[in-house]
Amino acid sequence: MCSRICSSQQEVDDLHTRLKITPCPHCKEVGSLIKHGFLRGYDPEHQLNKTIRAARVFCSNRNRATGCGRTFSVWMADRIKQFFLCADSLWQFLSNAVSSGNKLEAFRKLNSGLSDSAPYRIWRRFLNAQAAIRAALVGLCEPPQIVSDCPVQLTLAHLQKAFQEHRLSPIAAFGATLQSFFI
Predict the structure, then answer these.
(1) Which residue has the higher pLDDT, 112 or 60?
(2) Which regions of 20-124 does DSSP assign to beta strands (E)?
């Protein structure tokens, strides 16, 4: 599935404004893109409420339109696909877990409302994604020269070094810059 990751709401609004002059990422047809609703999910701050997680765009093949009929998503960089936590909360969790060595305690500091098994699932997803994350980061900058026997600490330091000038959290900046989801 093709997705677009934007760093701000202004960037999303600009993309929506330019839909008719933007080529479809699938078929490259210009003039067929239209807004097509939203992807909704649970709100991290209010667990009982749903929130908009991404906008959908449709390449219209209806009536006289010559598009391919496929859709793609436009995500905000602070949201992570198929993930309850936002990018800032994930960064806090990973940083606290590495510094304290206690995943459960680091996760409880977030007050997320998820079960006590959630930090271990999140940690496993992060460990499985580390190789891809580090490979992407090497293309941006050299790894920091720190001495550590903990690969997770090296990954987080590399992430922080690569996006130290961004106003977004390092995970959100990773998504917006590389147009790829963190995990």
Answers:
(1) 60
(2) 33-42, 50-59, 71-76
For residues 127-140, average pLDDT: 94
What spatial distance separates the first Cα and last Cα of the chain, rounded to whole Å? 15
Confidence of residue 55 (pLDDT cuts 50, 70, 90): very high
Helical ranges in the chain per DSSP H:
9-17, 87-100, 103-108, 118-138, 151-162, 170-178
What whole-number distance in Å separates Cα of residue 91 and Cα of residue 169?
Answer: 7
Identify the H or E element spanning 3. Answer: strand 3-6
CA-CA distance, 125 to 11, in Å (whole number)? 29
Q: What is the pLDDT of residues 22-44, one digit of tens each?
A: 999 999 999 999 999 999 887 77
pLDDT at 1 over 70: no
Do the Cβ atoms of 73 and 39 come closer than 8 Å?
yes
Instruction: Give the separation between CA 140 and CA 69, rounded to whole angstroms.
Output: 35
DSSP 3-state assignment of 14? helix
**Is the pTM higher than 0.85?**
yes
Asked if residue 126 has pLDDT above 60, the reply is yes
User: Are the C-beta atoms of 22 and 30 separated by less than 8 Å?
Assistant: yes
Q: Which of 156, 158, 164 is nearest to 127 (CA)?
A: 156
Q: How far is CA 181 from CA 32, 48, 83, 86, in A?
A: 26, 25, 10, 12
